[in-house]
Structures are given as structure tokens and as C-alpha cells.
Inverse folding.
């Protein structure tokens, strides 16, 4: 193990001393400022728009409305993946003018864009725009949207149903259920959440009329995908879009796609001939950033007399909000289907999806994007089955794990799992959590007036396969002979500057400080995927290794020339080429230095590789204590055993697991975007009402690694960005249910707020 | 935020003059409620008159059995004050639980009391300790001053100078913070005074209130169990997406019992 394994993050000093440069730090000469008028209705026809009074306000330069969006033709958002059902129907993807036209479909939808000499002037003018609405009934809940009486959001989407989709074998499942000795059923869901990254969205866009090109200064998860999506939405060729990306203050999937505001600013800057800047307020972010999760789920598990799983059947009703985001359906359909069997050898599986439009903010990927949702329902269902059958929860899982000799394992719904050691993870986690000694702790807690519970989950997830067939990485020496790595990823806090540099430095045998990562840099002719789906290290990191290996081979003839030897006579190690007798030596970096006057530098290269989905997995165990007087659930211990394959930097992996687990804990215990069911107004429009997890929520996480190196990429990595979240949703919910189950409480769902838990306890007392 | 003119008062009389000259002006002390309100464009004062740093509003001292705290005292100063900790430790504790470190280092006693947010912590202490609000014009008793949700006896241009807290025999504060905002979802201040026990409840209802039944039983028997048979009426409580009326009513009782427990543990 080298010291890079636990090295502190190279980017941290810059970021925590305020030297990070974020999207709103961009300011262009002559820039104008934008403010968006947002719908205050959940569902209404726009009868008329009168922008003239706003134009009278001081400092206002122009106002743009839905008519401008229609005139520009900016109405068709890209979709990262389409889905077709067995009857041949595809996702119905209604148009979404980048400024609402004809209708508004959720509170916060952009209706008009005011451009002024200052941000203050733009905001001040918003209330001068006169809009006449004719209100329609709003459906913010999928049950309401699917009701026969529901108002239809889109003319071309009957019943507000974008698609009914299925996976697996319905008939085989039905047959297995007939033979079942026991069937366990559950109806739960994941709450709608707001990603709430620290950095709000911020865009500056300028237009070069001579070149007919746009400069877009924004935040993103990577340069290639966003550029392509803006191109698809606007019809502007990708090569005419110059994206400027720097530090990013949190992404969580929410920044993966193009937003209406990108394109609306393009309309404005082209018309006005000056750059236009917009910085979202936090309030706007709550309303208009893509939300996450929001799947209603029902699950049924058929078991035989020995507690072996025979079949499972699920229904997923996906609240997509008012429109499809580019990445939304992939998470809710593909990612859920891929791991629908969980970690179990369940011979028959069937899932049925309803993809539903509601009068709420559109849903996109959010840390895990469907992976935590399916893990949540599968692992809660297994826990409930164990309780009903009075089988130890760990034992029931062990009985049904996909055994080591069954890998690669093809799940009945299509996922092909690589080698995973679920029993190994469980065996490490149980003693770490003192599972066997729990009943003593439960009793001690009972005497102290508390309800104590322990819960576990064993989960697996398929990481992102990527939108582009391969990832490219460039290695370049600059005029000073410094080595830079160029990728198309973009860190939103994942520490790529440390990890990717470590991969290249280790492969080359040079100091990590000799290598600098530059992500998503404009003008680098490389293509590849963005950061997302826990794949950046797995894929781009792997290509970093390939690039470093390629660099050594590229340098070999130059080294031979310098040392006056044949290339075959050279050995490479510890950053240098040597003759076999070690008499002659030249360092790689010294060699590069010798050639800095050449342009391009002869050692500059592009490497590429295609790396698909990997399967991080693990076992988490949590222990909670509930105060029955207040309903407050306290997390008293948390054990995480994760297989994320080979680890490059343990500190960064720990940080990712901490963040993922805590983000999941936030959702389990409180995060919830709530719309008023009648008016469609967002009731949780600020942090006064929207619960966010705080640092004290989980005080300590006992982490251990159980690496089974991936054979699907050259690093042997499996990815770790989302697994903490995927595991913590079911783990913490199962622990909470275990505390409540002795009272006879079988069905309670997230968020386990104090009020909800207290009411459940009161209701159980009455029974 | 709308465009607003900022004025820094040089003295209390200067502040009064500025407020008098600009009828649409607002006083600014710590700004912990006002600034977020302005940022969300929910208020549109013409001017902000900053009184936060005025020496006339500072100082903490114990005089004749009363603790006098200047209106501009920040929550952190109250929480950390040796004088407060000795005279009324429950008050120092209350201040230590307001908001977060940033809020405690900006927000002021006077600002909190003048705003009388139904979920703020200080009004419970003001009411339970039968405090006197000293303004630029007069002295006002707590019960006359606090007039329900965001309402006080303050007149136009009247500025709180200091608050005089009666030092109780013993007192304790227990609070259940709102999961999102951190404000009191139920905060109960129990004070044992020469004139009997006073119990003030904040956060749970549309305004701070005295729980008279609890005062009666606790005056006879200062024990958590004395509250067992009592309940506040859920119909008088607030309800929102985070907590039902019934839950808030329960919290009032649980926090009251815990406050009594804590009070008994103090010397």
C-alpha cells in the first residue's frame, strides 16, 4: 500500500480556503442579468401574457416569454434512453417549451425571462408582468394523476401515463405464487426529495454572432453530455457550443441534464448581443431544480416451506413530475429492473411500471437513481417475510443469497452480476455490529424506557454503463514539461483531482504532485462520459491507467534514442527507463522535459477504453433507539461493509460512504418535498420547512472493506458514489421497523418523522 | 431583496429620529429574521436603521434581584455570560439552544422579543420570569407586552432598550426543536418564583402562553409526575406537515415534565 492510499485530498485546501471557483463566479464584460418569472399555479392555461409594464421598469432591457421559446423551436428535450414496452409503445415525451407556452404544469415552471442591467432590476420587474391564468385542477400525487377524473397535463399523453412497462416473466411468477407456502406483501415508496446541492444553479451565456456560436458558463457533471443535450434541445450544432466548467458544489445527478434556463438564456443573448447571467435563488432551486426518487412501490415475495424465495413481483408507480428530464426514466426503469432480484437467487421475477406525469417539478437522477429505491423495497420485503416466518433476518438472507459459484449471475430481469461475496460481507458485518448480543441491548434500552431496534440490508447496484461507448483520456505535457490529465468527467466533490492523479502517478511510478487533473476543459478533443452512476473512477479512472501505460510505451523509443540503446534493451520502473545493467538511466519526466520545445509534444496522447457496468455491493447494519415519548429515532450505531472493488484512496471511499449513508439517513428520517394535494403549492419551499440531515445525525460509521476486485475494468474498481445511499435507506428503515415491530407495528414508511412515529406508537397502544 | 437604504444609527435618540423621519423604515439589530424576510422579498421597508452596535443597548448586569440584559445582547453573549449563568442558568441554556452558531452570534435578545415569533425561545422566558420590557418610552410587563403571534405592545418608533428578568428560585427550559427549522416545536420554561410556579410554552401554539393548570399542580408538588393527569388541548395547538396538533400537545407535556426534572436537579 502506498501513501496515496490514504493521502488527504489535493483539492481540499483550495476548496476549504475559499479558492474554489464556481459558476456564479463567472462575470463577462457587458453582461446583463436575468430573472425568471415562475408559475405560481400548479396547472393552468395561460390566457394572456402582457410583458409591456415590465419593460417600463428601470434597467429592464427585454422580456422573453413562451412565444419566444416557440419561435426558437426550443421545446424538445433530449432523452438519454428511450424505453419500449412489449406492445411496442415507447415513452410518451411531451414537448416542454423552455418558457411555458399555452399552459403551466407545475409551480415554479419558468413563464417569462426578464433581462436587465442588474440582477436587482430584473427581479424588481418580475411582478410587473401581467399573466392571466385559467386554473385547472392539479394532480401532485400519482393516484390523483391516474384517476379517471384527473385533468390531463399534456394533450398527447392520455391519462397522464407516459408508458406502462414491464420486465421479467409474469406467467412464471404467477405459477410460482400458486405453489408458495407463504407470501409476504408490502406497499411502500420513496419520498420525493430536493437534491439541494450547496451551489445553486448559475449560468452565463454569450453569443458570438460572427461565428454563430455560444459560450455557456455553467456547472455540470461533465462537458460532453451537457453539450450534446443543449445541442439536441436547441438545434445548435455541438461544435458551436463552448462550455466553460470549473468547480462544482455538489451534483447528485441533478446537474446531469440540460435545463430550460440554459436555452432561455441562449434566446436572450442572441437577441440582445450581450452576455446574460442568471443565478438561481435557493427558493427557485426548491421549485425548479430537478427533484429525485418518488416511486410508489408494492412488492410480493413467494417463499417455500424452508423460506426459500420462489418468486417476487413488484409494481412501480413513478412520479416523473410535469415533464420527462433527460435522465429521469433511465433511473426509474433501467436501474430498478437491473437489480430487481436484489442479492437473492429468486428464480422468477416480474415488475410492472407506470410512468406518470404529475403537476410537480420534474424528476431526474438523484444519488443512486432507482438503485436505492429497488434496494429499499426488496430489503424491506425480506425483513417483513423474516418477521412473518419467524426466521432470523440474517439467516433468511443467507439461505437465499446468490452463491459464489453462480457468478456471473444473470438475473431474470436481465442484469448480469459480476462476482460478489454477499455472505462474506454479512459475515464481516454481523460481528462488527455485535448482532448476536443485540437482545441484551434491546432489554437494557427497554428498562430505560426506549425502543431499540437493529436492522440490516444486503444490497447490490449496477453502476452506470455510460452514454458514450467509450471514454477518452488525454495526457499532455505543457511548455514547462508538467504533465496534465484531461478527462470529460467533472468532480462535484468526489476528489477526482486526487484519485485520477494517483492512478496515473502510480502507473508511471512518479510522485502524484507531478500530475495534474484537468476535467471537462473546453477545446480538448476528447469524448467520454460525465460523472454519474458511480462510474467516473471505474471507467475514466481505468482509462487514466491505460493512458499512463500508453505513455510509457510512447516514451520508450525516445528514451532509447536519448540513451543510445535499442528500445528492447530498456526496462521501465519507478518513473525511469534503465538499461538492463542499470548503467544508463533517464527519468520519464526528464525525458519529457527534453522535448518541450516541440509542438505538439511528442509524448502527448489520447487513450480510450470501454468499461461498462460494475456491481458494488455490501452489508450495512444500523441500530436505533426510539424515544416513545417524542417519537424521535436516534441512530446509535452504524456498520458498513462495502465491496467497491479495489480502492485507490481509502479516505475518499470513506468520505463517499459517509456522505451516501447520511444522505440516505436524511431521506429516511425527514427529507420530503411536499406539495399541497389540492392547490399543488410546494409546502417545503425553504430549509425552514424542508428537513436536511445535519452532521450529528450519524455520529460514527464503522467502515470496513470487503473488496472483490472487479474483472470488468483494469483498476478492479466497482464504484462507491451511490452505494452508501442505496444501503442506508433499507438499513435504517429496517432498524426502525425492528424497534417498532414488538408493538405490533408492521407497516410504516419513510420519512420516519418524530410525529409519524409517535402516532404509530399511540395507535399501537390502543390496539 | 428590494432596493433599501441602509442607515446606521449613532445613538438611541438618533435611531428614534431616523425611524420618526422615515415611516416605512425598519429597525435592524441582528437581522436574523428580518434579513431572510427581505431576501425573499416578503417585506419592503424604505430604510433599515441599524441599531445593532449601539452601546446604550448593550450590557448584562444583576441589580436588586433582577437581571438586566441589553436589547442588543447577542444570544451567544447571554449563553456565555457568567452573570447570567449564575443568576438564571436556565436563561443561559435557552440562549445556547437558539438556532445555530451563526444565528447565536448575530441574533439579539431585543430582536427576538420584539418579533415575538410564536416559535422563538426567548418569549417563554420573558413570560415565565415575568420580565419587564424597558423601551425608549416606558416599562412594559411581559404579559402586557406579548400579544400573540408576531404581536407586541410596541408602538411606532418605540425601541426596546433592555429586558429585566426576575431571578427565580429555580428554573429550567426544555425544547423540542422543529426538525427542519430548529425553532421550538414545543419549548417549556418552568420557573419557581416567590410568587409561585410559572410555566410558559412557546412553539406549540399560535403564540407563547402560560399553562395555568400545570402552574397550579406544580406549585403544590414540583414533580414531573404531578403533570401526569394534565394535558393541553390539542385544538389550541398548531398543525403543519411536520407535526399534528395531538403530537404538539404531547410534546408540551413531555417537555414540561423534562423541564421539571431538570429544575429539580439544579441547586
Amino acid at each position: 500500500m502506498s501513501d496515496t492510499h490514504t493521502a488527504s485530498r489535493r483539492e481540499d485546501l483550495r476548496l476549504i480556503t475559499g479558492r474554489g471557483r464556481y459558476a456564479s463566479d463567472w462575470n463577462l464584460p457587458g453582461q446583463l442579468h436575468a430573472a425568471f418569472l415562475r408559475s405560481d399555479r400548479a396547472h393552468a392555461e395561460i390566457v394572456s401574457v402582457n410583458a409591456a409594464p415590465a419593460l417600463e421598469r428601470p434597467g429592464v432591457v427585454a422580456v422573453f416569454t413562451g412565444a419566444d421559446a416557440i419561435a426558437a423551436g426550443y421545446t424538445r428535450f433530449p432523452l438519454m434512453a428511450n424505453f419500449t414496452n412489449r406492445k411496442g409503445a415507447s415513452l410518451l415525451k411531451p414537448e416542454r417549451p423552455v418558457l411555458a407556452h399555452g399552459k403551466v404544469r407545475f409551480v415554479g415552471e419558468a413563464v417569462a425571462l426578464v433581462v436587465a442591467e442588474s440582477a436587482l432590476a430584473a427581479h424588481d420587474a418580475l411582478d410587473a408582468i401581467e399573466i392571466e391564468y385559467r386554473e385547472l385542477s392539479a394532480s401532485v400525487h400519482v393516484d390523483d394523476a391516474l384517476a379517471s377524473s384527473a385533468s390531463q397535463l399534456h394533450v398527447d399523453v392520455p391519462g397522464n401515463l407516459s408508458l406502462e412497462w414491464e420486465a421479467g416473466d409474469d406467467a412464471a411468477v404467477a405459477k410460482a405464487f400458486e405453489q408458495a407456502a407463504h407470501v409476504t406483501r408490502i406497499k411502500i415508496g420513496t419520498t420525493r426529495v430536493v437534491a439541494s446541492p450547496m451551489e445553486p444553479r448559475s449560468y452565463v451565456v454569450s453569443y458570438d454572432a460572427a461565428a454563430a456560436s455560444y459560450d455557456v458558463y455553467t456547472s455540470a457533471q461533465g462537458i460532453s453530455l451537457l453539450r450534446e443535450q443543449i445541442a439536441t434541445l436547441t438545434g445548435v450544432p455541438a461544435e458551436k457550443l463552448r462550455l466553460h466548467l470549473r468547480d462544482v458544489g455538489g451534483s447528485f445527478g441533478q446537474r446531469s441534464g440540460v435545463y430550460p434556463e440554459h436555452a432561455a438564456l441562449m434566446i436572450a443573448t442572441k437577441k440582445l448581443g450581450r452576455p446574460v447571467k442568471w443565478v438561481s435563488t435557493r427558493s427557485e432551486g426548491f421549485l425548479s431544480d430537478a427533484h429525485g426518487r418518488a416511486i410508489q412501490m408494492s412488492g410480493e415475495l413467494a417463499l417455500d416451506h424452508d423460506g426459500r424465495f420462489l418468486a417476487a413481483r413488484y409494481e412501480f408507480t413513478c412520479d416523473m413530475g410535469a415533464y420527462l428530464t433527460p435522465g429521469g426514466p433511465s433511473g426509474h426503469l433501467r436501474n430498478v429492473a437491473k437489480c430487481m432480484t436484489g442479492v437473492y437467487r429468486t428464480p422468477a421475477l416480474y415488475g410492472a411500471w407506470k410512468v406518470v406525469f404529475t403537476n410537480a417539478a420534474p424528476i431526474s437522477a438523484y444519488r443512486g437513481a432507482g438503485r436505492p429505491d429497488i434496494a429499499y423495497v426488496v430489503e424491506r420485503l425480506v425483513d417483513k417475510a423474516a418477521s412473518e416466518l419467524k426466521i432470523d433476518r440474517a439467516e433468511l438472507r443467507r439461505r437465499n443469497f446468490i452463491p459464489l459459484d453462480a457468478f456471473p449471475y444473470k438475473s431474470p430481469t436481465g442484469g448480469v452480476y459480476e462476482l460478489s461475496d454477499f455472505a462474506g460481507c454479512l459475515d464481516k458485518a454481523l460481528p462488527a455490529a455485535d448482532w448476536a448480543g443485540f437482545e441484551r441491548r434491546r432489554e437494557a434500552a427497554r428498562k430505560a424506557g426506549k425502543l431499540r431496534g437493529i436492522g440490516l440490508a444486503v444490497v447490490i447496484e449496477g453502476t452506470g454503463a455510460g452514454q458514450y461507448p467509450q471514454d477518452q483520456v488525454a495526457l499532455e505535457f505543457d511548455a514547462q514539461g508538467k504533465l496534465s490529465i484531461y478527462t470529460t468527467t467533472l468532480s462535484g466533490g468526489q476528489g477526482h483531482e486526487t484519485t485520477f492523479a494517483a492512478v496515473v502517478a502510480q502507473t508511471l511510478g512518479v510522485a502524484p504532485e507531478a500530475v495534474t487533473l484537468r476535467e471537462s476543459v473546453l477545446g480538448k478533443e476528447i469524448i467520454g462520459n460525465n460523472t454519474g452512476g458511480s462510474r467516473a473512477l471505474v471507467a475514466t479512472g481505468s482509462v487514466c491507467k491505460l493512458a499512463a501505460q500508453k505513455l510509457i510505451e510512447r516514451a520508450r523509443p525516445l528514451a532509447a534514442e536519448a540513451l543510445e540503446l535499442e528500445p528492447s534493451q530498456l526496462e521501465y520502473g519507478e518513473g525511469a527507463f534503465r538499461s538492463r545493467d542499470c548503467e544508463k538511466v533517464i527519468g520519464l519526466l526528464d525525458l519529457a522535459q527534453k522535448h518541450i520545445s516541440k509542438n505538439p509534444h511528442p509524448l502527448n496522447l489520447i487513450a480510450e477504453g470501454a468499461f461498462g457496468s460494475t456491481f458494488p455491493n455490501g452489508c450495512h447494519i444500523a441500530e436505533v433507539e426510539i424515544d416513545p415519548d417524542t417519537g424521535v429515532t436516534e441512530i446509535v450505531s452504524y456498520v458498513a461493509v462495502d465491496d467497491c472493488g479495489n480502492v485507490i484512496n481509502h479516505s475518499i471511499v470513506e468520505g463517499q460512504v459517509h456522505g451516501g449513508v447520511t444522505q440516505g439517513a436524511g431521506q429516511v428520517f425527514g427529507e420530503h418535498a411536499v406539495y399541497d394535494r389540492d392547490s399543488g403549492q410546494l409546502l417545503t419551499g425553504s430549509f425552514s420547512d424542508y428537513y436536511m440531515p445535519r452532521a450529528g445525525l450519524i455520529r460514527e460509521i464503522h467502515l470496513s472493506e470487503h473488496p472483490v476486485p472487479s474483472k470488468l475494468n483494469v483498476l478492479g474498481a466497482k464504484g462507491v458514489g451511490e452505494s452508501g445511499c442505496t444501503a442506508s435507506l433499507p438499513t435504517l428503515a429496517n432498524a426502525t421497523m425492528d424497534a417498532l415491530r414488538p408493538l405490533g407495528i408492521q407497516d410504516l414508511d419513510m420519512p420516519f418523522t418524530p410525529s409519524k412515529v409517535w402516532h404509530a406508537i399511540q395507535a399501537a397502544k390502543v390496539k | 431583496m428590494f432596493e433599501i437604504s441602509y442607515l446606521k444609527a449613532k445613538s438611541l435618540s438618533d435611531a428614534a429620529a431616523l425611524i420618526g423621519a422615515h415611516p416605512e423604515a425598519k429597525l435592524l439589530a441582528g437581522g436574523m429574521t428580518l434579513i431572510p424576510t427581505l431576501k425573499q422579498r416578503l417585506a419592503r421597508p424604505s430604510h433599515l436603521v441599524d441599531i445593532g452596535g449601539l452601546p446604550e443597548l448593550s450590557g448584562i448586569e444583576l441589580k436588586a434581584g433582577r437581571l438586566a440584559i441589553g436589547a442588543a445582547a447577542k444570544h451567544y453573549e447571554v449563553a456565555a455570560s457568567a452573570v447570567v449563568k449564575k443568576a438564571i442558568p436556565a436563561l443561559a441554556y435557552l440562549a445556547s439552544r437558539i438556532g445555530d452558531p451563526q444565528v447565536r452570534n448575530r441574533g439579539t435578545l431585543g430582536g427576538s422579543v420584539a418579533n415575538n415569533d410564536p416559535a422563538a425561545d426567548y418569549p417563554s422566558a420573558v413570560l415565565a420570569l415575568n420580565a419587564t420590557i424597558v423601551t425608549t418610552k416606558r416599562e412594559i410587563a411581559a404579559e402586557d407586552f406579548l400579544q400573540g403571534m408576531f404581536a407586541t405592545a410596541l408602538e411606532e418608533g418605540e425601541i426596546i432598550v433592555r429586558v429585566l428578568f426576575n431571578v427565580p428560585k429555580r428554573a429550567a427550559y426544555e425544547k423540542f426543536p422543529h426538525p427542519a427549522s430548529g425553532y421550538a416545536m414545543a419549548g417549556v420554561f418552568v420557573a419557581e418564583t416567590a410568587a409561585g410556579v410559572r410555566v410558559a410554552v412557546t412553539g406549540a401554539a399560535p403564540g407563547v402562553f402560560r399553562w395555568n393548570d400545570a402552574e397550579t399542580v406544580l406549585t403544590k408538588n414540583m414533580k414531573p409526575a404531578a403533570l401526569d393527569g394534565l394535558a393541553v388541548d390539542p385544538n389550541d395547538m398548531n398543525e403543519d406537515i411536520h407535526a399534528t396538533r395531538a403530537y404538539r400537545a404531547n410534546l408540551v407535556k413531555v417537555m414540561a415534565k423534562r423541564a421539571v426534572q431538570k429544575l429539580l436537579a439544579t441547586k
Q: What stands out?
A: The longest strand of chain B covers residues 184-193. The domain at 5-50 of chain B is CATH 3.30.43.10 (Uridine Diphospho-n-acetylenolpyruvylglucosamine Reductase; domain 2).
